[in-house]
């Protein structure tokens, strides 16, 4: 019953405590909401929620959000191919997989996210991007920004300041895009560079581009100013008041079911397990004692788990029983350094207590873990 | 014409044993004589090719990225079928029909075309389809009385398949009560009507979600069976328990546990338990906690327990030893690498603090902090997790008093610490006082350790903790 009345939009207007008692008094339907949270999972969950529960027939929605440092990959991408996972873990930068397609982006508070919700029929990305350009030009008329046919927004004809992605469902759709205001470009370029070699997959690859912050073009620009001018343009085009409603993604009464959506987006099965099948074919250069061993490794990874694993070790380098135990343990386990570390250290407990053996085992396992 | 159709149908039947003929609506006009043959050649429903609908923005092709269903699965209207991608847009394609998936026209990463078939769905004939393709308007069977049937002035709604069933059984649709949407007459309604008329017992009609339709068999599902059940008329509806067993493979952490515990089983364990009065230690920790905080370190009880254990191991080194595979040699380990059992989201892990014998209580606290933060972030390294010689498990932080811990090979002893409780005890003067009591449960490898050794070690450890000042005498 809650969702029923929600579809009329009235309930939402009451809960959001907007000054307007009823949205239907306006000429055309539109709603601008902004998230108070900087948590990427919570914000992605809000997108899911609006997509699944709101009736966009009478009222389109613009959702504004910003995240604390995070890397967001597209629905069908491979995180190992797209970013430096080791660096992410070290720097405590979150990794999220969104439900829309497209490529990988780095978010921090200097980057703003805009999501345009419409019915499936009214899905129109160019219009949305033109709206943004119009807003930017209204703020700074001398800004050289334009939309490309790849749905990017370029600054000075060469620097990408916005990337786009979209999600279409049965009755509703959304188009979201980024806008670089003042993001940390150093961190951006270092995390979006993958160190993993030998990966082969059909996952959607990202197209790297030179980026620039709008702040670099005009230091007077802030994220708040940009959010405001875009909201104003949206309000004008939809004939609604220039009013931004704040929502809290942790509010389960306002958005019933949101905490489940948030949890799902954080599960390993979603973030890593949804990676399309890929193979790893590389050579470990293992430094052991005074020599360097070249060890060929081949692995097939499906749903984020190792399906097949082959390590081409010199004969008798490890006792054959132990080697087969290692391969057996790795097969079916997650392609994940933490899980692999636990497995290999546990296997060691049941081994003969031989220093030489332990050293070899450690060297091999350390190298294997580096692949993940 | 009819006979010609039958022949072509039979040839199709033999060539395409996997697929069934795709019938158009005219096929439903088959006369009665051909019915039996035709139904034995096909399954009970009609195959519809579900085409990929328009994506918008003039897009003509997409890439299939993920299938949510496979051939043979039942789907309901609006269930997700697959995920396709086109130019940065990810699209969820949902089913327009209730039915069973008979064929997937594309594999993962294939290019699919808008307007071309995506999947073949076999529609359960008694069910309605999505409004876009409502079969209500199609011309019904040839017999006059079955066209334009009226119940109370309303036009009767029924699919051609239902009309055929009624006609074959000489039932007037006007006499049947429809239970479907808009009083539509469903196959079940015809069967119910029949049952009441003839008193015959008929099988409940198969619902697509529960019974997978007959694929390769050739029985006639609609015909009444001899040993079928009576259609039930429930008075009270008991709550149906729809829980199902769920089987998953053992992988990752669980697999690791299986290996460790199977190896541990080979060790003959014996246990020894005691209670420790920590009243003095509790007070000492309260005094030292702020000092540690100034240095940026959280001080728990564990550093004290670990250091006391190491002092004890200096006196009883057999507890810090390892027995080889054939039980031929005992190796007395020089380093006291004391493991601390940690409960993480994924399961139990045991990192160890290296060389406790040369560490101060503060050093141990620092190292524990480091291991704990790495452990909760899932970033412990292999060196943190290997080389342990003795383990303490502080299960008391979760709860419990006495436990029966399992030794982690290649070690030979382990201690489980219960929770600290405030209990009444007698002091030296025979008065009842409040004491902070903790229980400890030791397990040791009975092949090389005897009860007396364990008891003496435990007493020594206990004495250090009950009277922390005595630790100062023996600290190295």
UniProtKB/TrEMBL annotation, chain A:
Signal peptide: none annotated. Lipoyl amidotransferase that catalyzes the transfer of lipoyl moieties from lipoyl-protein H of the glycine cleavage system (lipoyl-GCSH) to E2 subunits of the pyruvate dehydrogenase complex (PDCE2). Unable to catalyze the transfer of octanoyl from octanoyl-GCSH to PDCE2. In vitro, it is also able to catalyze the transfer of the lipoyl group from lipoyl-AMP to the specific lysine residue of lipoyl domains of lipoate-dependent enzymes but this reaction may not be physiologically relevant. Residues 56-242 form the BPL/LPL catalytic domain. InterPro entries: aa-tRNA-synth_II/BPL/LPL, BPL_LPL_catalytic, LipoylTrfase_LipoateP_Ligase. Belongs to the LplA family. This is Lipoyl amidotransferase LIPT1, mitochondrial. One of its GO terms (biological process) is protein lipoylation. SUPFAM superfamilies: Class II aaRS and biotin synthetases. It is an enzyme of class 2 (transferase). Keywords: Acyltransferase, Mitochondrion, Transferase, Transit peptide. PROSITE patterns: BPL_LPL_CATALYTIC. Pathway: Protein modification; protein lipoylation via exogenous pathway; protein N(6)-(lipoyl)lysine from lipoate: step 2/2. Pfam families: LplA-B_cat. It comes from the Eukaryota. It is found in: Mitochondrion. GO terms for cellular component: mitochondrion. CDD domains: LplA (cd16443). One of its GO terms (molecular function) is lipoyltransferase activity. It catalyses: (R)-lipoyl-5'-AMP + L-lysyl-[lipoyl-carrier protein] = N(6)-[(R)-lipoyl]-L-lysyl-[lipoyl-carrier protein] + AMP + 2 H(+); N(6)-[(R)-lipoyl]-L-lysyl-[glycine-cleavage complex H protein] + L-lysyl-[lipoyl-carrier protein] = L-lysyl-[glycine-cleavage complex H protein] + N(6)-[(R)-lipoyl]-L-lysyl-[lipoyl-carrier protein]. Its EC number is 2.3.1.200.
From TrEMBL, chain B:
It is found in: Mitochondrion matrix. Residues 157-194 form the Peripheral subunit-binding (PSBD) domain. GO terms for cellular component: cytosol; mitochondrial matrix. It holds the Pfam family E3_binding. SUPFAM superfamilies: CoA-dependent acyltransferases (SSF52777), Peripheral subunit-binding domain of 2-oxo acid dehydrogenase complex (SSF47005), Single hybrid motif (SSF51230). Residues 47-122 form the Lipoyl-binding domain. This is Dihydrolipoamide acetyltransferase component of pyruvate dehydrogenase complex. It comes from Pomatostomus ruficeps. PROSITE patterns: BIOTINYL_LIPOYL (PS50968), LIPOYL (PS00189), PSBD (PS51826). The branched-chain alpha-keto dehydrogenase complex catalyzes the overall conversion of alpha-keto acids to acyl-CoA and CO(2). It contains multiple copies of three enzymatic components: branched-chain alpha-keto acid decarboxylase (E1), lipoamide acyltransferase (E2) and lipoamide dehydrogenase (E3). Within this complex, the catalytic function of this enzyme is to accept, and to transfer to coenzyme A, acyl groups that are generated by the branched-chain alpha-keto acid decarboxylase component. The gene is Dbt. One of its GO terms (molecular function) is lipoic acid binding. Its cofactor is (R)-lipoate. Belongs to the 2-oxoacid dehydrogenase family. Its EC number is 2.3.1.-. Keywords: Acetylation, Acyltransferase, Lipoyl, Mitochondrion, Phosphoprotein, Transferase, Transit peptide. It is an enzyme of class 2 (transferase). Gene3D superfamilies: 2.40.50.100, Chloramphenicol acetyltransferase-like domain (3.30.559.10), E3-binding domain (4.10.320.10). InterPro entries: 2-oxoA_DH_lipoyl-BS, 2-oxoacid_DH_actylTfrase, 2-oxoacid_DH_E2_comp, Biotin_lipoyl, CAT-like_dom_sf, E3-bd_dom_sf, PSBD, Single_hybrid_motif. Its main location: mitochondrion. It catalyses: N(6)-[(R)-dihydrolipoyl]-L-lysyl-[protein] + 2-methylpropanoyl-CoA = N(6)-[(R)-S(8)-2-methylpropanoyldihydrolipoyl]-L-lysyl-[protein] + CoA.
